[in-house]
User: Fold DUF3822 family protein from Neolewinella maritima.
Amino acid sequence: MGISNNDITAPAFRPDATPDYELSILTGVDSFVYVIRNRITNQLLAYHRSELPAVEAVDRPARLAQLVEADVRLRDLRYGNVLLGWDTPAFTLVPDDLFDGTQARSYLEQLTVVGLEDEVRHETYHELGSSLVYVARRDDLLETARLFHTPRIQHYAGGLLTAWASRARRLQHEAISCSVRGKRLLLAGHRNGKLLYYNTFTWESSQDAVYYLLLAYTQAGFSPSRAALYLSGEIGTTDELYYQFYRYVEDIRFSVYPVPPTVGPILEELPPHRYFDLLCLA
Assistant:
């Protein structure tokens, strides 16, 4: 495979050493992204991103199977640990003292249409004091779990919200955090570790995205001139979206994982915030 920003493999990657490796995957809406990390040395060994058909496409599970079959890092290899994150905007947080697992479907039906082909799942996050409830197509979930030999799939927002809260608690500050994945934003506001606001949005123009960002500041009660903005995911300093954000927010930073993996010369070209969301699945 040729080296590009969407497909990078370090020379240190060894197919016979995958029992020592951790495979972190993020998929669900329109993309398939993963990183491979050596758990023993905490070294990043590979990064890959591919496009997937829209959720409505009938052949989406088949397309995912084709991607796996064509990838020598995935085909016929077993990893010591597999972390599988699901990316869907259809999720909600329910405080622990109000949560009833038998009513999980009803929590989402207040926000979106849950079809007969969908499956509702929920996860407990003690750090957030809440349960995260989400919905996804049943065939997508089953095929993805089969392909990667793992029964556990988690919604990626749980790890991100937990990591963002931990940072705000450690730094004792207020901040807005934003994950960019394609044309989707996950936004949250924290003060000293307490979650004050979260929401997901789909944007068409950069001005749409700016509106949603400023809405997050307003809803959290923060000022764009005082509270920092932490970015992660598919955004860089040369992107139009970053430029528009910078017009309104004075302090923009990129999210950094607390114990980041080491990288070799090849993977140094990949900004760490690009795979921050994947590391938060741990």
